[in-house]
Amino acid sequence: MSDIRPDLQEVFRHVFGEGELILRDEMTADDIDGWDSMMTINLMIAIEKKFRIKFAAAEIAGIKADGQNIGTLIQLIQKKTNRQS
Predict the structure, then answer these.
(1) Positive or negative CA dihedral for 80, 58, 8, 72?
(2) Over the stretch 25-58, which tens digit does the pLDDT of each residue have?
(3) DSSP string, 41-66
(4) What mean pLDDT comes out for the span 3-15?
(5) For the chain, give me the number of helices (H) and strands (E)?
(6) pTM exceeds cut of 0.70
(7) Among positive and negative, which fits the CA dihedral 46, 22, 26, 35?
(8) 5-81 in CATH: which number?
(9) Which distant-in-sequence residues (6+ apart) come within 8 Å of 48 by Cβ?
(10) How many CB atoms lie within 10 A of CB 70?
């Protein structure tokens, strides 16, 4: 199945205005400049549009929780899109 990483990286670059941003699975919100609560909402909306999925409120609220990183976000998106890397 297809890897969603390139598409997700494109979304992150657009939302955060950082054209050189390279996502790594172990990255957290703390690793990305400007990732605050408002940017979380903007990011999740952009991801929903890009991948044609919907997040539950609890999923959005938990995206910056301890133990969450880009890798866990990728897993969540893959689950919702039924795609595997």
Answers:
(1) negative
(2) 999 999 999 999 999 999 999 999 999 999 999 9
(3) HHHHHHHHHHHT----HHHHHHTTST
(4) 96
(5) 4, 0
(6) yes
(7) negative
(8) 1.10.1200.10
(9) 54, 55
(10) 20
85 pLDDT more than 60: no
Residue with tokens 């990183």: 69
10's tokens: 């494109």
pLDDT in tens, 16-27: 999 999 999 999
HSE at residue 49, side-chain half, CA atoms within 13 A, is: 11
CA distance 40 to 34: 10
Helix axes 70-81, 5-16, angle to 10 degrees: 120
CB atoms within 10 A of CB 63: 21
